[in-house]
Amino acid sequence: MLTSSMRQSLGYLLLFISPFFYSQENRTADELFAQARTTAFEQKDYNTSITLAKKALEKAPDYTDISIFLGRLYTWNKDWASARGVFDELGKKDVRDEDYFIAYASLEYWNNQNEKAIEILDKGLSYHPQSESLWLLKAKTHFANKNYIEAEKAIQTVLSINPKNTEATGLAIRINEFTAKNAIGIIYNYSHFDEQFDNDWHIVGIHYKRITPIGPVILRGNYANKFAESGTQIELEAYPRLSKTLYLYIGGGYSNDVGIFPKYRTGASLNANLPKGFEAEIGYRQIYFTDNIWMLTASAGKYYKNFWFNLRTYITPNKENIAHSYTGTVRYYTKSAQDYFALQVGTGISPEEYRNNLLENESFKLKTFKIGAEYNFSIQKTNLFSVSTVYYNQEYLPNKKGNQFDLLVGYTKKF
């Protein structure tokens, strides 16, 4: 039994907290909706946010924005059945809000129900044909479903509505890699040295790319004339997709003409396509002439409207010190993912340049500055042309520098 003092204390407590409960129960639907959003976005407390959204709907059952938000909350909380229940009820009410179709299709997209997502998006686009968000999600969904032709159509629609859509530009670049099952190409690289070597270099590379169920695979053969001698190299590269966000780079090469090319080269990287137009890569490269040279590589990229910014580094550790190579690149895309201007500035030697045999004898530790420009353009989407030039100021011996000028032209046919 409660004593009189306990009853008195309980009375004081109820008197203290009753205004709090009274104020909670008498909040408007808008106030509860605002608190639900704050709780979800700032505190990431989806359960509490769901409770608040439900209370708001008790006060305003036909408040569509709250119902859509509740469906999103269930999605974020991985309660797929409840989310679908909310969206299905909205569908029965013939809701036509753009955000409804985005939220519902996003649920199905992230659960790999791509056909269902496309059905929802098509219905949404019948009401909102100029919606960038709906078209962009449709492009993502077709891309995830490996329907690359439809993905390209959707992303081109986004870019026709808004040519400076950052996320669409980045996605268009990725889709472009898959729009033709086959591609063959040829590239020619000419190098002139004013001090380091007496003879100019000539390198010709031919490649064949095939889109496979796991991703692009590229077979490449290279012929070079360097130091007035000739050599050949064969390379194989693959870019398997792991998920909507991640893919790998795996590559290797072999040559029996050591000195003209490395005897072996290998490489692997994990790549991520991140939100808001960001991308990242981390991996390794290995080159073997008479000894192994191991390099760690990392890069960070960002799409912004029609621009792509990228910074890449190669780090080569050894017992005495660590050699660094850095390259910054800026691209400006014009009419498509295959048409752009690029500028490049960097220091050090990259193992992925055609001149990579300069990495022999640890000359990669010497100082190099480079600056270059590139122009890529397409004709009828299937004929791709590339022209670039690079200037190098190379320390080829300690405290002794020379200049190098490179000119590179290339052609690729997609089919």
UniProtKB/TrEMBL annotation:
<dbReference type="InterPro" id="IPR030887">
    <property type="entry name" value="Beta-barrel_YaiO"/>
</dbReference>
<dbReference type="InterPro" id="IPR011990">
    <property type="entry name" value="TPR-like_helical_dom_sf"/>
</dbReference>
<protein>
    <submittedName>
        <fullName>YaiO family outer membrane protein</fullName>
    </submittedName>
</protein>
<dbReference type="InterPro" id="IPR019734">
    <property type="entry name" value="TPR_rpt"/>
</dbReference>
<dbReference type="Pfam" id="PF14559">
    <property type="entry name" value="TPR_19"/>
</dbReference>
<dbReference type="Pfam" id="PF19413">
    <property type="entry name" value="YaiO"/>
</dbReference>
<feature type="domain" description="YaiO beta-barrel">
    <location>
        <begin position="181"/>
        <end position="353"/>
    </location>
</feature>
